[in-house]
Automatic annotation (TrEMBL):
Keywords: Isomerase, Pyridoxal phosphate. SMART domains: Ala_racemase_C (SM01005). The keyword Phosphoprotein does not apply. GO terms for biological process: D-alanine biosynthetic process. It is an enzyme of class 5 (isomerase). Substrate binds at residues 137, 311. The modification N6-(pyridoxal phosphate)lysine is found at residue 39. Residues 237-368 form the Alanine racemase C-terminal domain. This is Alanine racemase. It holds the Pfam family Ala_racemase_N. One of its GO terms (molecular function) is pyridoxal phosphate binding. It catalyses: L-alanine = D-alanine. Its cofactor is pyridoxal 5'-phosphate.
Amino acid sequence: MALTSGLGGQLSIDLGALARNWRALDQVSAGALTAAVVKADAYGTGISMASKALYAAGARFFFAATPDEGMAVRAAVPDAHIFILNGLYPGAANLYVRQNLMPVLSSMAMLEEWLAKCLERNEAYPAALHFDTGMNRFGFRLNEAPLVRERLQTLGYSPQMIMSHLACADQPNHEKNRTQLALFGSVMAQFPGIPASLSNSAGLMTGRDYHFQMVRPGIALYGGRAVNGRKNPMAPVVTLHVPILQVKEARTGETVGYGAGYSLSRDSRLAVVGHGYADGFFRSLSSSNSRPGGKVAIRGKLCPVVGRVSMDQITVDITELGHDVPNPGEAAEILGPHISIDDQADAAGTVGYEILTSLKGRYNRNYVGDGNLPPE
């Protein structure tokens, strides 16, 4: 494969696959509303274009992490219902009101500031309430539920939704899932008639008991693995190809890369690829003689990274390609049909989420798969 536009890496985002993934999850969650999580620049795919594609697919509820992300969604899809997962930033209530953003309130301080703004404007601005059922991240403590309920009843305020978040949904048989489900049920009982949401991508796939009135898929929309130990059913959304810059011969015993941690055990042919940790290819994908590293695909065959990942380059052993020698300017596949997001994540000792959200490198972005969407 030759790179045909631009001189750097080519990052392609398949908006059609993104839309198909949302529709597939929407079928699984039948009976519940299917939202779309678009935080972290829509998991590295571009929040504006991703939000438009998801809206066109049928999504109407969106979850962002920050008000800035929420405003980006609002600009892309003006009619969307947008929740801000990080809650109400201190002193920012006027911004949320102007932009019609719904904070996910997770503390008494957030709740009081939001209620004060509602009283000031004589308007019940919508918000969600997040309760901590065992993750010890965001959320009201369970013993605060009666106080929250009493405060809301005093003012006649009804939240849009009650939420919590599963800590171990990627392990469907983990006991903590059932514990959190039971605790969430105890919270819901104190807020009768209020819609509820518990499931992320993995929770959605775990079972209908976790669906309630809304599910909040994230990683699965973008083609990443949500549940460990199962075949990933989602369509890949992202591909990344980067240029080969040089092909060279190296001899037995010579070292490769910074630190001289990799010595060649044979005469080798190496390809220097224009992609490094500045582009989101983690240093943990480096290799030494005692530890394998990541791989890339060249001419459809997997080739190992040798030596340490540099800021701007990686070196790849292409000896096994034999006489099928690539030319400078040809593409090395970093993500694509031969190497998935999760393949790279496994090699790096991380998760697909981090691979996707690190795609901030020096790429030419190309959106494909839906000609009905306007250009970015």
